[in-house]
Amino acid sequence: MRFPRRDLILHAVYSHSVGRPQPTDLAQAEQYSCGNSDDTQAGSVNCSLTRGNPNLRPRQAQNFDVSIDKFFNHGRGVFSIAYFNKIIKHDIYTTRSTELINDELTYVKQPRNANTSTLMGVEVSVVNRSIKGPWNQSFDVNASGTWMRGRMTYEGANVSYKLNQLPEQPKYIFNGSVTWHIPQIRGALKASFSYSAKYLEGLNDDPTQIYGYGSQPSLDIGAWHDITDSLRFKYEVYNLAGSHTRMYYGKNLNRLEAKENYGRGIYFEVVYN
Q: Which of 134, 144, 163, 166 could cross-link with 150 by S-S, CB 3.0 to 4.6 Å?
């Protein structure tokens, strides 16, 4: 449904979707190994096995979406707020269980279907282009923030566990950028910021062994200018603030396991059309 009223538009959508398992989820070649590795635990679980699951059922979802868009700045800007709700049946996730194989305790990693899953959230975004500045300069602003709440029930070792978020689903996401267009140099400067709250990555029959990643902020800076109509120079600095990637364990992701520092990336690019 779509109800226009000058610069205000309401959207309401219902849909039913089906997501089939990836071929590698169904028919992945088994990989079995024993000895010290990242997937084993010295002194207790000495072997690991990764395999597919030919019994996976397709993921099905009922989707409800409602949004309101308000246009301004002569159509160059829009403010939007949206609500979404998804009821998911047979959601697909990857879990790790402990089984006795060849008389060895073995970590077995394979995809499975969840019992029930739901995901709801609210997204607010604003876009405004060609904001006039001094000396014929202009700015583009783009920002969005999303809050999500997930619910999931999955089978563990002879018991069902309930989670307050879905795998790979942070509770908060924010993205924003500002572009400064400078006609005097035939170019622009751009700053981009993103933030993702901590999220689950892999489930386990033992909830204390659930793992995921911590919150991740990122700041990138870029610039470009045209030397001629056909030649452009571009400069980029990724991860300017030097953010770290952190892995956590535990049902609430409260046990720090590892921290990785990838540093900053600086790039120079020449584009010729």
A: 166
